[in-house]
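Re: the pair you flagged

First of the two:
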Amino acid sequence: MNQKTVDMILKFRDDRDWKQFHNPKDLAISISLEAAELLEVFQWSSTDVECVDKRDKIAEELADVVNYCVLMADACGLDLDEIVQKKVELNNKKYPVEKAKGKSDKYSEL
């Protein structure tokens, strides 16, 4: 995500004076609720695991999750690029290609 998009999300919040309500606890709850709404798109989808016909709704709910993640990072003073890069580095160690490629096993099972 580029800085322009992050700034747009923060401006939306600031224009409405909502930062006062955005503490980590409530933002974590909001992320979870929005993730549940994303999951709901797939409910009762039977064998259609991609839900191609629901792409617009998936995009809308995913955007809500991402927006709240940006707000959470801001509230906690975290740099999204930094924390994501660190997590990918950690996952690279936990899931080395030679052990994990083509497998869905948890790292402790590899």
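Second of the two:
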Amino acid sequence: MKRTALLILAVSVFFMAAGLCVAEDVFTPPVGSAERKAILNTLRVEIRDNFDLEVAFVVKWLKVKDGWAWVETEPQSCDGKNRYEPFLALLEKREGIWIIVEIPSLEEDSSPVDDDYFGRLLEKFPGLPGDIFPREK
């Protein structure tokens, strides 16, 4: 009886530990969630500090996995009357805080944000999950 209980305990501990090591699936944080607000607030601070604008975001793409996020937005004034240039960013969650680690240039003469660009990001940031990026069709 003791042997069976110990075996069950050992197997349970093994599966619980294995579950902690499994990577999370890619997901889009739901509207109103704390995760989505934290990511968008990080972008909001960046825009406020660099362009002196208070904005709301129309989110075109937001995927999160393993402490990384890729977001593509169309900022607008909080009343929706003014629309601004698209804002894209790669974020990493460090010690529980979302940090912008890369903002691609969207200037006319810049390289496009495409599969090649995402490939360069994957080389630059080890551990970055590629499935947070939109893929060309």
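The helical segments are 2-21, 34-51, 115-124.

-B.
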